[in-house]
Amino acid sequence: MAEESEKRPIESWTESDVSTWLRSIKIDExxxxxxxxxxxxxxxxxxxxxxxxxxxxxxxxxxxxxxxxKRDELTNSSPATKPQDxxxxxxxxxxxxxEQCVLSGNGSKVKSKTKKNKASQRGLSAKRDCKPRxxxxxxxxFTYAKHNVLKPESGVVDMISPCHEYKSFEIAADLDNQRLQxxxxxxxxxFACGCMNMRTNGTIHFGVMDSVSDSGYVHGEIIGIPIxxxxxxxxxxxxxxxxxxxxxxxAAECIRPPEFIEVSDIDSTEKYYVVEIDIEPKIIIVSSKLxxxxxxxxxxxxxxVEYEKKTMYRRNGxxxxxxxxxxxxxxxxxxxxxxxxxxxxxxxxxxxxxDLGRKLAMLITDGKGKIEKEKWHIVVAxxxxxxxxxxxxxxxDLKIFCVFDFDxxxxxxxxxxxxxEHHAANLHFLQNxxxxxxxxxxxxxxxxxxxxxxxxxxCNGRNDFRGNETPCDEIAxxxxxxxxxxxxxxLICKQILPNGTFSVIFFLTSPVExxxxxxxxxxxxxxxxxxxxxxxxxxxxxxxKWEGYAQWSCTAETVQSKSISGMKMSHVNATIQQLQPSKTxxxxxxxxxxxxxxxxxxxxxxxxxxxxxxxxDQCDDTITDSEDEIKVIEENFYRGGKVSWINFWLSExxxxxxxxxxxxxxxxxxxxxxxxxxSIEQTAIQDxxxxxxxxxxxxxxxxxxxxxxxxxxxxxVARHSFSASKVAEHAVRLREYxxxxxxxxxxxLLLVEDFDTExxxxxxxxxxxxxxxxxxxxxxxxxxxxxxxxxxxxEKMSKESPLQNFSVTHKLSAEEKREFARKKTEVEKQYSxxxxxxxxxxxxxxxxxxxIKFVKDLLVGIKHGDVVTHLIHYVALLNTYVQxxxxxxxxxxxxxxxxxQTNIEPTANKQTxxxxxxxxxRHLFESSLNKQAxxxxxxxxxxxxxxxxxxxxxxxxxxxxLRQLLGKDQQQSDIAMKLLKDDVLFQNSFGKEHxxxxxxxLCMRRNKIIKGDKSDTSFSPLIEHILEKENPEKxxxxxxxxxxRFNEDPFFAQQLARxxxxxxxxxxxxxxxxxxxxxxxxxxxILDTKGQxxxxxxxxxxxxxxxxISPESTVDTIATALEAIECFRTxxxxxxxxxxxxxxxxxxxxxxxxxxxxxxxxxVFPRGEKGRSECMQYLVTGHIPERVKKxxxxxxxxxxxxxxxxHDALTRISExxxxxxxxxxxxxxxxxxxxxxxxxxxxxxxRQTAWYGNFFKDVELPSKEQNQLSTRMKxxxxxxxxxxxxFSLLSEKxxxxxxxxxxxxxGLKKLDQMELANYIASQIALGCVxxxxxxSKLKELQAxxxxxxxxxxxCHPNALFLLTLLFWPEDxxxxxxxxxxxxxxxxxxxxxxxxFKIKQKNVPHKELRVFTHFYLGKGSGLSKIxxxxxxxxxxxxTVSQKRIKWFDGYIWKTPEIVHMLKRVQGWTEHGNVYIKxxxxxxxxxxALNSDSVPDGNENVEFYVxxxxxxxxxxxxxxxxxxxx
Length: 1524
Description:
The structure is a single chain. Helix 21 links the parallel strand 12 and strand 13. Helix 2 (15-24) runs antiparallel to helix 3 (29-37), helix 39 packs across helix 43 (955-966) and helix 48 (1032-1045) runs antiparallel to helix 49. The strands form eight sheets. Strands 12-13-11-10-14-15-16 form a seven-stranded parallel beta sheet, sandwiched between helices. Strands 19-21-22-23-20-24 form a six-stranded mixed beta sheet, sandwiched between helices. It is α/β, with parallel strands linked by helices and 1524 residues long. The protein is built from 68 helices and 34 strands.
């Protein structure tokens, strides 16, 4: 491959070619990986400098030297990179001579060697031809690009066209002023004398190479000279009087002052110039005159300027030489005068009229007649003048992605100020486009709100900005801000907008400066060409300077072809407006409460960017002249494309047939029409939910509901990239827009697609908060949330809540069948059946036999070895296993192009290959698809980025295509392996993040019922298929390939460990678990997996003992169990340090292993009481029986701690369960999931605690220790050792067990803090289930609680929680009693809240799941404490409904709850709830549902719940006026 690459021009190398070549020269793989990340292709490789390789790639000096040496060898042998000059074959001797000639006359050394080396580096890139400054024009508005090449020196042409002479002045520029001026005057006057005598115009250029003897340069190459003082060059012409003597005045009229033309060098901030002096011998001045000159020379021996003898010169070809035969020359002088006179008379430049309007139209529309609707535009501008700002209507209607604005006053008085009067824009600086290392492109786009509002980038600071963003001069900008510009342009062109989806327009409305020039060069480089770049300049002077600067990146002809110069901005405005397909500022309208309409201003719509607003006249501005366009829209929909508003509009306007109304649509429409707009029973926010099978049309039904209700509601769709709070904010703004009274507004019908339940709850709470803030009258419908989500069991979901949930399935009702049959007949008359197959399949209810037949017929004659068939394989595999997956067209083109390139004749020349490649990049994808692919693939287009992609028509079709295509010779694992190893697809830039995610999900994402899947799986569905239908080894290979592909991702190592222990490959599982741990040593989930390896290994060894249990035979098994325990304890430590997750799986697993280990240890000892007693002695005391002393000598200390460790783990589990409602199996992130499946952890804890107590209850110890241990074990066996188990007995109403626990605790003489807390908790639990509870019992428990430490910081959270229960004041308390109770209550609350914060860490969603154990009831004594199980007994709800019922307040309105619980009075301030405490102090009570708190200052009533966070307020209501 390296040899093949080297045969091709380096400029054509792909990133893969570069990587292959780097490997061939033995560059380290880590550097090659970095080259791939930086997207280094052949062009970039040629331009790579030592600084780039060191800073960007991170290479050391040794590899850099090797790479640059090998690259130079390669470029010298490559025809594409050989220099165009004749210096390439120069000998080393010549080079040395060149270097020796850098001494000036006075012996000072000049900087020629450095320049020569730089010039040789420039040999790597082509030198472009360029044109000289127009004769007679001022140089201030003209620029040369360094290393561009002027035409060779010339002689007399037609007297008027100037002849040219070049002088490098490379050495002379470093001379002192006297020597420099003498040299300049000598060369100028010699040339001028020759021109004047020949009567021809001429220009002498200083700073342009005149000799090919300079290594690395070519004749006519522009290098420029550094000039510190221009006056030195101007004053050099003062020698004229002494040189021309009596003719000096005539000479002065012919010799013009020097022009200084700036030389732009993109790699340097140093100023260089070409000095040009024009000679114009007008006939009126030089007629009949022959000139001679005394040329000045600086003599080193005398150290002064001396003059040569008088000499006459002439131009002879490209040289200036003395006139040898003066008489003969003089005799022809009259003839030359006549020629000059005629030339001046004939030289009248006609005004050439250029059709700039047509040129602008062709450039802005790509020759298509109209500007494409979908095309994005990037605007680059410097300061707009006042008159220009009156002519920007076309910009207001242009689809702009971002603006690079170099005007620091743009926001205050320039283009930005004018634009934001009509459109919303996000104001950024260049550094905002520096993407953090860990951030994805999708998240970055969301953070900057790209595609939603124009990103206005201030490239040179803002004068009106209070922050530290002040403007700077050109040099400072290049030093400090150019890097940010480069990163911004690279990010946009390489990762955000695909080539061809956008154009860049430069507006030169002010004098050109270097920063905007650098922007041009960066876009040229990143877009790999100039096809989509346009330059517009009203001023020809501005353009002239721009043209010179631009030639650094392209030829003058290219710049001219892409530029509009001299066209007034008002004419530009009018011309482009005619080319725009429709105005983006077209008036849209919304319905209002008074039954009229209001206009929706464009800027207001853009400010509500988190929602897509559906107006009542949506799409009315659509031009429907093109039947072909309508046909394309319809065909795309019936093939399975996502429905859009234009589909409904075409149907409504009778351009196409009517839309089918599914039964679900009718049900939802009826439900909506039945909703009263205002009723005392009506809630402000209503929920309707659509659950649909993939591909069944659920999204179409949802949007159809919006379309047909857009006149009765204000309708909108929530956008995915915004938070619930932002969507709620904009939904509220939409509801109130242009309405007179917030109490009288139309409801908002908001569609929320593919969001999880938690997001919907957040959105609902945000909207409820807004409703309360506005104090909307109760019973007013404000928002109707219509959610739409995929589900594999939609009918089951709809049955759970018939009034709220609706289902859309593949199954059709009888009425729907008739409608589909009618529609099928209608559309088959217009379209081929293959091109409406998705609609046909829906008509057939996705019948399996129909799908099989369709696919079988379609695949007849397909070429299995064809690259397009491979593409079908890849897409089918992704679509089968990864929901909503697709492959970007860029990926497809890369795959097809690679195949095409391998078939190009290797003998084809460079130009042929380039043309072939360019043509394929434009047309290959569409033209190379076979007929099967054309039918199967549906083309998608991202609504924001316009990145095009493909997927197969339907997942069921994809599954069948995959099955039939594979046949007997191939398996799905083979396709997956090819996909994983395909470098071209993995490294392709656009759509990379999505492709990587799909590929990752293919190999890693497990199915989960809670995510809408049919069942839970241990591995990804693909891996499960391979395990079931193929063989486990294939699955191992796939995961190993994924591990390698994703840069040795530790989570794939974790998956491999899981797969290995599933198939009892424990040594290999340990290896992979160790790898994962090494890469992420502090990740508790990976540590848990390592523990699972040893746990499963231990279980396997235990099982294989097969009855042969002895101290010797169990050594290895026990060692493995202890290793598992150690891993789980490490996992627990890591989990405690993790602040963003709550993983307690280690404790559960530790208990399970310790239980099994204790069971094994017991079996080693003889059966019967004696053996059991000996075992207990060994485990709990210092006694070591002889039978195990030697075999287990390494385990004794660890085994004797098992009983303590197990108790600690059980206690920790109890503690976690007392704080939060927990189900450890509900984590939905693949990288944060465990193997533990504990559906009811509270019952699990009770069982394990009881087993633990029963196991150790018969230990014989010295009397004191025996009593303590036996008592603890008895309590464990009863379920009284921890507060969670005690409250579990209360839930199950096990009064006998609770009485036994109380009796055991009552028999203890002294209780420690935990025992005392458990005793009090048992008494409270018993009081809740017993009718014999009295007030005296409460006082008795209050007295007991005084034994808790007075220093509340030393109290355990269990004790603090019980204090809040026991000392909540009662109605009959005296003032003193109330104050005393409040004092205890407040001291406990303060510490309890602090301990909760530590426990909660940074896991905000856990706050929503705080476990409320008790509520304050209306009784007295212990009867006032009502357990949660008493409330739950009244109402039964489905799992999906339960949380909503608790949080929306419905539960608190039930009569049973109102009768049982006591309402407490308080007030709210700033969103917080308070009650009065002791001595007038206030106590802050957290609201269970924070959104139920009124935002104003209100008197409220609420129920009190008791949690380990402290008391919480539930069912908060505002007191009516007059209530106390």
